[in-house]
Amino acid sequence: MVETVQLPVLVTIGVYGFDAPTFFAALQAAQVDLFCDIRRRRGVRGAAYAFANSKRLQDTLAGLGIRYVHRPELAPDAVVRSQQTAVDAATHVAKRVRTQLSTEFVAGYNATCLADFDSAAFIAGLENPHVVALFCVEREPAACHRSLLAARLHADLGLSITHVIPPS
Questions:
Q1: CB under 8 Å to 50, separation ≥6 — which residues?
Q2: Sign of the CA dihedral with 106 first, then 34, 71, and 18 last
Q3: Can you give the residue ranges of every domain in the chain?
Q4: 46 CB-contact burial (10 Å; exposed 0-12 / middle 13-18 / buried 19+)
Q5: How far, in Å, CA of 48 to CA of 76, rounded?
Q6: Spatial distance between the Cα atoms of 46 and 58, rounded to a whole number of angstroms
Q7: Burial of 18 (0-12, 13-18, 19+ CB in 10 A)
Q8: What is the distance between the alpha carbons of residues 76 and 5, in angstroms, rounded to a whole number?
Q9: What is the 3-state secondary structure (H, E, C) of 67-118?
Q10: Distant-in-sequence, close-in-space partners of 48: CB < 8 Å, separation ≥ 6
Q11: Angle 54-63/20-29 helices, nearest 10 degrees?
């Protein structure tokens, strides 16, 4: 008998704009059972976001029964990040208010992180989650690489995607 694998639902979430209670409530409301941290560095500046620093985040998720995985290879490298930083500086846009990624960043991320990415292997390696949260920091999904990864998973596997954003 051939075993069929149930494909998960994807949500994406950033930390900016949330406080700890609304962040974790949003994960629970979305019924997330696997939290996939795709940041290279697992810290966030500012006391308001201390709950998203690695140890605290993992402890809280464990208390909620949400598994945690870190996939730093899906984070943009320093060269790709610097391309976005240069565009942000030229357009006078701060990272926390950026609403979209530059074409340079998108091309760089696709070339360095997604060119050899195997969507089916990625999902298979997650051990049968029902709802996977792809996590980074930016408030707006279109301003973050998590949206590029989610779009790739949707294109390759047809996964459903919901972008969770903080309340206004």
A1: 44, 56
A2: positive
A3: 9-164
A4: exposed
A5: 24
A6: 18
A7: buried
A8: 29
A9: EEEECHHHCCCHHHHHHHHHHHHHHCCCHHHCCCCCHHHHHHHHHHHHCCCC
A10: 19
A11: 50
CA nearest neighbour of 31 among 15, 48, 13, 45: 13
> pTM of the prediction?
0.93
Provide Rg for the chain, Cα atoms.
16
Cα distance between residue 84 and residue 91, in whole Å = 11
Q: Please check whether residue 110 is in contact with residue 74, taking contact to mean a CB–CB distance below 8 angstroms.
A: no
Please report, in tens digits, the pLDDT of each residue of the chain (168 residues total). Answer: 655 668 999 999 999 999 999 999 999 999 999 999 999 887 787 888 999 999 999 999 999 999 999 999 999 999 999 999 999 899 998 887 889 999 999 999 999 999 999 999 999 999 899 999 999 999 999 999 999 999 999 999 999 999 999 987
Q: Which SS3 state, helix, strand or coil, does residue 134 take?
A: strand
Asked whether the beta carbons of 150 and 134 are under 8 A apart, the reply is: yes
b or e along 125-143 (b: 16 or more beta carbons within 10 Å of the residue's beta carbon)?
eeeebebbbbbbbbbbbeb
